[in-house]
Amino acid sequence: MKRFVWGRYWSVVKKEVIQIKRDRPSLAIALVMPLMMLFLFGYAVNTDVNDIKMVVWDQSATADSRELVQQFVNTHVFAVTEHASGYKAIESMLDNGQASVALVIPPDYARKLDRNEPTDVQLLIDGSDPNIARTATSNAQLIVQNHAMSMQGQRLQKQGMGELESPLSLDTRVLFNPNMESIVFNIPGLIGLIMQNVTMILTAFSLVREKERGTMEQLIVTPIRPLELMLGKITPYVGIGLFSFCLVLVVGTYWFGVPVKGSISLLIGLSILFLITTLVLGIFISTIAKTQLQAMQIAFAFILPSVLLSGFMFPRESMPLVIQWLGGLVPLTYFLEILRGIFLKAVDLTALWKDAMGMGIFCLFILTVAMLRFRKKIE
């Protein structure tokens, strides 16, 4: 077995640095693109549902009915945008998107309340968007129940019977993200996704570019080993990727207000491992593709499954077991656990070693396969 020669490795590093300096547009994209994507997706990827457009048909038109409507508005989940005078108008507004929810208050609403009789209000919900429909349903039920309890308590107080107390209460505490803001959950995931895509594409072109420029043959006739060549090619990009990662980390912390609660040094250390993994993945793609267009297509074919299977958009726990195993073949899956663990929960390596090990094994496996493919081409 031939030994690793540091001199040949450093020669490749110097050659790659010179090429990067000459290819300034690509360097600018590598540094600026992560910031642009973080700003764009940071505002776009928001699963919080607020100001659902609501149309109200208040047939009672009393202080009691207006108080009920105000209860909906006060939550900021609903926003009254229209008032209707019948079901036809409501159907028209739901059809053309003027409203997503319709609140129908019957004419005898206040009268029945005065008589202490049960009364019904109707909520019509546009179910074409399940996320909005679920949010509207759960919040509306909570609003009506709380309003009914409040009215019942006031009525009992007037009768001198004291406050109405529930025999059962639930003490709920939300840890790590007390306000349950989606941006707190999304920003760490976005940082991982952006860094994966940018760094992988950077090296996906490296060997292909050598082929297209006709310099691959010159490399092959030299005594350089596949490991020396590949490590030499990814080393400059590790520095570029780390600089970009620090930029998006600062923006995520100070612009979007998502601070890192855990160890910064641990986060940087594991991020370097992730960057090396995605750069090696790009090198592997480069050994498969024959042109830069093919390299781009293969890279995008990997990006889509990584978005869907890694837990970035959907919880992996709700996926079938086979799909969860497939998600284990994506390094982003492990890095998202690391990012969210350090960002939100301030956990240390004892809680993250399995994810770090999974990422390291994936990196070594892909590097070995890429070296074997490159050695085969040399032969």
TrEMBL record:
Record organism: Brevibacillus brevis
What's the protein here called?
ABC transporter permease
**Can you tell me where the transmembrane regions are?**
27-45, 183-208, 234-257, 263-286, 298-315, 321-344, 356-374
Superkingdom of origin: Bacteria
Q: Which residues form the ABC transmembrane type-2 domain?
A: 133-377
Asked if the keyword Cell membrane belongs to this entry, the reply reads yes
Supply the alphabetized keyword list: Cell membrane, Membrane, Transmembrane, Transmembrane helix, Transport
| Major place of residence | membrane
Q: Which family is this protein grouped under? A: Belongs to the ABC-2 integral membrane protein family.
PROSITE patterns for the chain? ABC_TM2 (PS51012)
Compartments annotated for it: namely:
Cell membrane
Q: How does it sit in the membrane?
A: Multi-pass membrane protein
